[in-house]
Design goal:
alpha+beta, Sulfite Oxidase, Chain A, domain 2, Immunoglobulin-like, 3 domains, 5-stranded mixed β-sheet, 5-stranded antiparallel β-sheet
Length: 426
């Protein structure tokens, strides 16, 4: 994704703007454009190129499509020193290089606790047991034969932006915010399976277990399970990738990503939470007074400006497009405000349709950059009325000991040189 700031001569400007405004959205396009394209003297348009004159490659009958070689820099990246090993680590999605709100499967962030499990789907099983009328084991064929649904949902690691609690750390949009992605997930609603096996009246919780080497387990309240949880087998129109839980995973919309157990093998119903490692010593929020918040599942309203950002500097004065992403585990994004002066003044951004619940929403706003310093901030509000807090507001409630659930507003400093830095206000 690049900023629309093409240099050109003034020749033909009035004619271009007149014709553009006659088109749907033409006026808006003129507002964002730094200048219009003029063919005169530009060899990129006046001279024939090799691709105009020679046949290209034919179809690859056996291959799996890959991006253009000119997009080879759009990749997931990781920080080697972040964890002890790659088998229990994370890589980050390049948010600044994405368009729309859907993350391609090959760019969806990864988080593993015991490495990627390589599972033969013919040998994979899902067991439902515990407080049910009939304990059953399902094959993958059983699951695929059931009625299914498809929904767009974001998945965010609870530790996304976690290194920023005490101050600005990583000068990067990708490494600061890249543990979030959105996909269209296809699978069987968990509530249908619960009805099929007959959840007993006293069953209030579900233990979900993965088949990876870490034996990842999390406890889910049955109310959530009966709401919108999916037993998913497909992602963006194809089988889930191995790193995302092939052949079967949970998708728990709006809850921290660790709840969406990958390589799902077992669901046990009970009358109390299991208090597993991942909801006692981990994925809890240590407060100033020494107590910890537990079962803080919902990823609250959050946003980030993806352009400009440290990976996408500006190139001199002129018209730019500030754009970014917003999401909320409580439902739809209702509004995103953008400030270029550190939060003293705000403008409401345009939200790209469709705006869906528990799904990333793209926003944008035109910006006439006059040079000098600028402080870019975004602030999201969801349909419940919840407003994304500043870090000062968040720390007043949570202190500075947390790792998880940092949804504070992010500030980018645009320097006179055009470089963009991660900074902390207040």
């Amino acid at each position: 994704m690049t900023v629309n700031k093409t240099e050109t001569k003034a020749v033909g400007r009035r004619g271009f703007l007149k014709s553009a405004s006659a088109l749907a959205g033409g006026a808006a396009a003129a507002t964002y454009a730094k200048s219009t394209l003029a063919a005169s003297g530009d060899p990129a348009i006046t001279e024939l190129k090799d691709w105009n004159q020679y046949l290209g490659y034919g179809v690859d009958a056996q291959g799996y499509g890959v991006p253009s070689s000119f997009e080879e820099g759009t990749i997931r990246r990781w920080v080697p020193w972040l964890t002890a090993s790659a088998e229990s680590s994370v890589n980050f999605s390049p948010l600044y290089d994405l368009t729309g709100f859907v993350t391609p499967n090959g760019l969806h962030f990864e988080r593993h606790h015991g490495g990627i499990a390589e599972i033969n789907p013919a040998e994979h099983r899902l067991m439902l047991h515990g407080m049910v009328d009939k304990e059953l084991v399902f094959t993958m064929d059983d699951i695929r034969r059931m009625p299914s649904e498809s929904h767009f949902y974001f998945t965010e690691c609870a530790a996304n932006s976690g290194m920023e609690w005490r101050g600005a750390q990583l000068n990067s949009c990708q490494f600061t915010y890249g543990m979030v992605s959105t996909a269209q997930w296809t699978g069987v609603p968990l509530k249908w399976l619960l009805d099929y096996v007959g959840a007993k009246d006293g069953a209030k919780w579900i233990l979900a277990e993965g088949a990876d080497a870490s034996g990842m387990t999390r406890t889910i309240p049955i109310e959530k399970a009966r709401d919108d949880v999916l037993i998913a087998f497909a992602q963006n129109g194809e089988a889930i990738r191995p790193e995302q839980g092939y052949p079967l995973r949970l998708v728990v919309p709006g809850f921290e990503g660790n709840m969406s157990i990958k390589w799902l093998r077992r669901l046990e119903l009970g009358d109390a939470p299991w208090m597993t490692r991942e909801e006692t010593s981990k994925y809890t929020d240590l407060l100033e007074d020494g107590r910890s918040r537990m079962f803080t599942w919902v990823q609250e309203a959050k946003s980030v400006i993806t352009n400009p950002c440290p990976e996408r500097p500006v190139d001199g004065k002129g018209q730019y497009k500030i754009e970014g992403l917003a999401w909320s585990g409580h439902g739809k994004i209702q509004r995103v405000d953008v400030s270029t002066d550190g939060g003293r003044n705000w403008q409401s951004a345009r939200l790209h349709e469709p705006v869906l619940p528990k799904c990333m929403t793209r926003f944008e706003i035109p910006w006439d950059y006059q040079g000098g310093d600028a402080l870019l901030v975004s602030r999201a509000m969801d349909e419940t009325g919840y407003v994304q807090p500043s870090m000062t507001e968040l720390q007043a409630v949570r202190g500075v000991n947390s790792i998880y659930h940092n949804n504070a507003m992010q500030t980018w400093l645009v320097n006179p040189s055009g470089e963009v830095e991660n900074v902390r206000l207040g």
